[in-house]
């Protein structure tokens, strides 16, 4: 699998960075309700799947699908694992799910890592019942919008993006509406919010998950041929930016929902 952030600490990173309040707001906005059968595509270790489980209640069902066996096992072993959650290992382009199985198909922070988003969206539509909802959420500007941006951070980021190529799309979020429209989804709605806003020096809590994020990126770059010192220099420039009291970093989260005709 070519998921760039794949490493043994990825499930923990996602657990640490997940904002419960924002996630519940997004899930409610998607229209998930008690009794629904919901897909969580790209579920990682089930952090969001458990929140969906709370919303659908004991009369509903959640299916979490992810390519990583390791993260799925981490989800199944979670102390708050709910009876209503089932995990399946599988590929976004060939979902292990039946046609029309779900009332709501949800996916967040997956499309930015997919180089064939149209095909992945077609799969989400296939497994959603007629009249059901497909909801996808992703970022615009992830890791790349900074001000003021030092020369070393700017050039390091540009080279990192070239290295990652089509394994990472930092503009996936703003492309979702058009994808949904072209795929023939109806009643499309878009929610846009600021995300990853770090104004001035980063807080210790945010620092902890950004450190894991930057380590994950460095790991991905080393696997693609960067030397230890070159990857460390980018992490250093990025960390300096985040720690600085006179800089800011931000991105935007797009959440798009549409009804399967
Ligand atoms: C950033 S995590 C998403 C976390 C979670 N959905 C959330 O909202 O925080 C991306 C997940 O997508 C999975 N993934 C990436 N490419 C995939 C593919 N082609 N098929 C299935 N899962 C994939 C990765 O294994 C990873 O667990």
In short:
The chain is built from nine helices and eight strands.
Please describe what this structure looks like.
The protein is of the alpha/beta class and 261 residues long. The protein has a single domain (10-259), classed as 3-Layer(aba) Sandwich (Rossmann fold). Helix content is 41%, strand content 25%. It is built from nine helices and eight strands. Strands 1, 2, 3, 4, 5, 6, 7 and 8 form an eight-stranded mixed beta sheet that branches. α1 (10-17) runs antiparallel to α8. It binds S-adenosylmethionine. S-adenosylmethionine (SAM) is lined by residues 3, 14, 18, 42-44, 47-48, 66-68, 71, 91-92, 108-110, 113.
Which molecules are bound besides the chains? S-adenosylmethionine
Oligomer: single chain
Number of strands: 8
* Cα-to-Cα separation, first versus last residue: 32 Å
Q: What general outline do the C-alpha atoms trace?
A: globular
Largest sheet: 8 strands, mixed
% residues in beta strands: 15-25%
CATH superfamily: Vaccinia Virus protein VP39
Low-confidence stretches: none
Question: Which H/E pattern describes the elements?
Answer: HHEHEHEEHEEHHEHHE
User: Domains counted in the coordinates: how many?
Assistant: 1
Q: In the CATH classification, which architecture applies?
A: 3-Layer(aba) Sandwich
In CATH, what is the class?
Alpha Beta
Provide the CATH topology: Rossmann fold
Judged by helices, strands and strand pairing, the structural class is alpha/beta
| Helical run tally | 9
Mean pLDDT, all residues: 96
Rounded Rg? 18 Å
């Amino acid at each position: 699998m070519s998921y760039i952030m794949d490493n043994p600490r990825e499930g923990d990173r996602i657990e640490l960075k997940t904002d419960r309040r924002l996630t519940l707001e997004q899930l409610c906005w998607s229209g998930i309700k008690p009794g629904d059968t919901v897909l969580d595509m790209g579920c990682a270790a089930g952090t969001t799947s458990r929140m969906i489980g709370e919303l659908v209640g004991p009369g509903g069902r959640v299916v979490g699908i992810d390519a990583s066996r390791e993260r799925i096992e981490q989800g199944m072993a979670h102390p708050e694992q709910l009876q209503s959650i089932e995990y399946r290992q599988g590929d976004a382009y060939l979902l292990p799910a039946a046609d029309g199985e779900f009332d709501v198909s949800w996916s967040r922070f997956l499309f930015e890592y997919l180089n064939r988003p149209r095909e992945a969206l077609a799969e989400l539509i296939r497994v959603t019942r007629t009249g059901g909802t497909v909801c996808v959420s992703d970022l615009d500007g992830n890791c790349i919008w900074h001000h003021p941006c030092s020369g070393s951070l700017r050039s390091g980021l540009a080279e990192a993006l070239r290295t990652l190529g089509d394994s990472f799309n930092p503009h996936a979020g703003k492309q979702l509406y058009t994808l949904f429209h072209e795929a023939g989804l109806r009643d499309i709605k878009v929610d846009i919010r600021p995300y990853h806003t770090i104004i001035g020096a980063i807080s210790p809590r945010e620092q902890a998950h950004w450190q894991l994020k930057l380590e994950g990126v460095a790991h991905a770059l080393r696997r693609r041929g960067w030397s230890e010192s070159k990857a460390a220099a980018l992490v250093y420039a990025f960390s300096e930016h985040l720690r600085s009291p006179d800089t800011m970093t931000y991105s935007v989260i797009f959440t798009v929902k549409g009804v399967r005709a």
